[in-house]
Design a protein that fits this description.
11-stranded mixed β-sheet
Length: about 475
């Protein structure tokens, strides 16, 4: 089955059922060391993960690590331009789960990005990025401790599908001509819009399938959180792009009110229910006026549509969600993309899980990571229905490779995400406790040490930070 690698002789496979992992007590987990500083990051991270599992389960559970290759290290083993060998793809497909350090973007070889390639090959449609502040971590934000969000970013469409035509090429000119002279004139709502002839063209597809499976996972995650964090916010620019980003919002709500009707309430539904609870004699029209302040200025047709919305909500879910029952449900709301960037800074504690399309999520996850202390403390996962890969979110930093200096926090916390996904919460909690205590005690690597007041000198090495975390498990 394999050309240049051999699986461990001890351990069992993780398998997936209905998109969820079935994990034995001794799973085999492939790992990719990573390029550049991966040579330092992975040994430190593996040591922390193994120590937490041993302390939590006393030998009853254990990971058998399976070394596989990608990036520059793969080229050393498999030959020039063999950045993503078939051995590695077979191993991930066979064992269902993997963890990796940072990878170099290849020069040549036909792969734009190894990270993107892995997501597309295994249909890892949910990029999951928790952004949580650990006390003592240097942050440019005034109140970073209020931030504790998980971003679910769609991984397979929007700009990540990469369908585009370069300006001036025959294909691009042909598409512009078709749009300007046929499709746009035949679409009344586009009126007299025209695309400039010297444009490049990119296609932004958003599908029901891609949108709803992402939101489904986000809601499933919300159901596992404490009650005060059970909220999902659909992030979109639907006020401008109604049939892509606006549709994402609508399809997300359809999942919440269809598949998760018993567990979810939308924000507008909560207003309707709350208004009726506060005044049982409230008329349908007066309730409609309360949920939509512009009601009196609307034409009759729109006013009736709002009244019908109120009637349908009260008829459908008053018995199951009324009289305060909605307060125990997962709250599903939506926010315009540009507004949420402000919200996570001025009111971060009002948000829990953000479900977004690809580009919005790309920006948002890095912005939230900056509040929490930067990419060195930002874990990530890419999850599909049949596989999951957990990864560092930062680059390879090759000039620091082999110096035992860099912060292993991103890889370690990605390992925490993996343990939580496996259901090994006790081991995950030990690592989070150890990491938090180490930072509070100012036992940190140089990237954090130089930002602290006063600066920590000397900082810990990468390997020493791992030891501090283990010491602080408690």
């Amino acid at each position: 089955m394999y050309d240049k690698i051999t699986p461990p002789t001890v351990g069992e496979k993780i398998r997936f059922e209905n998109g969820q992992p079935i994990v034995p007590d001794n799973p085999i987990v492939p790992f990719i060391r990573g390029d550049g500083t991966g040579i330092d990051l992975w040994p430190a991270s593996q040591r922390v993960l193994d120590a937490a599992i041993e302390q939590a389960y006393g030998g009853q559970r254990k990971i058998s690590w399976f070394k596989v290759y990608a990036g520059d290290e793969a080229c050393e083993v498999y030959g020039t331009y063999q950045y993503l060998p078939e051995d590695t793809l077979t191993a991930i497909r066979e064992y269902g789960m993997a963890i990796k350090g940072p990878l170099t973007t290849p020069v040549g070889g036909g792969i734009r990005s190894l990270n993107v390639a892995l997501r597309q090959i295994f249909d890892l449609y949910a990029c999951v990025r928790p952004c949580k502040y650990y006390n003592g971590t240097p942050s440019p934000h005034k109140s970073p401790e209020k931030l504790d969000v998980i971003i679910y970013r769609e991984n397979t469409e929007d700009i990540y599908l990469g369908i585009e035509w370069k300006q001036g090429t025959p294909g691009c000119d042909q598409l512009i001509d078709f749009l300007n002279n046929q499709l746009i004139p035949e679409t009344p709502e586009l009126k007299n819009k025209q695309i400039r002839l010297d444009s490049g063209i990119s296609i932004k597809p958003i599908s029901i399938t891609g949108s709803q499976r992402l939101v489904r996972r986000a809601i499933q995650n919300a159901l596992r959180l404490p009650k005060n964090k059970q909220a999902v916010t659909l992030v979109h620019k639907g006020n401008i792009m109604k049939y892509t980003e606006g549709a994402f919002r609508d399809w997300g709500y359809a999942v919440a009110t269809g598949e998760f009707r018993a567990e979810c309430v939308t924000e507008r539904e909560s207003w309707i229910l709350s208004n009726q609870e506060n005044n049982p004699d409230l008329s349908i029209e007066d309730n409609a006026k309360l949920i939509d302040p512009g009601y009196d200025s609307y034409p009759a047709e729109k006013r009736e549509a709002i009244c019908q919305e109120v009637r349908e909500v009260l008829e459908a879910i008053w018995d199951s969600h009324g009289n305060g029952q909605w307060k125990e449900k997962v709250m599903v709301n939506d926010r315009i993309a540009d507004n949420i960037f402000q919200q996570i800074q001025i009111r971060p504690d009002e948000y829990s899980i953000l479900a977004t399309m690809n580009l919005n999520g790309d920006y948002l996850s890095d912005a939230a990571a900056a509040i929490a202390g930067g990419l060195g403390m930002a874990p990530g996962a890419n999850i599909g229905d049949n596989a999951a890969i957990f990864e560092a979110t930062h680059g390879t930093a090759p000039k620091y490779a082999g110096l035992d200096q860099v912060n292993p926090g991103s890889v370690i916390l990605s390992g925490v995400m993996m343990l939580e996904f496996m259901g090994w919460q006790e081991a995950a909690d030990l690592i989070k406790t150890g990491l938090a205590k180490s930072i509070e005690q100012r036992e940190v690597t140089y990237d954090l040490a130089r930002q602290m007041e006063p600066p920590v000198n000397p900082p810990l090495k990468c390997s020493e930070f791992a030891s501090a975390i283990i010491k602080n498990f408690g």
